[in-house]
Amino acid sequence: MTHLLTEIRTALEDHYDADELRTVAKALCCEGLGISDSDYYLRTHVTLSGGQLSWLDQALRRLQAGEPLQYVLGTAPFGGLAMHVDSRVLIPRPETAELVRLVARLPQQAAVLDVGTGSGCIAISVAKACPALAVVACDVSADALAVARANALTAGADVRFIQADVLDVTSAAAALPRSFTCIVSNPPYIPLMERVLMERRVTDWEPSLALFVPDHDPLLFYRALARLGRTPVLAEGGWMAVEVNATFAYETAVLFTFYGYEDVRTEHDLYGKPRFVVCRK
Question: Among 98, 189, 201, 214, which residue carries the largest CB count within 10 Å?
Answer without folding.
Answer: 189
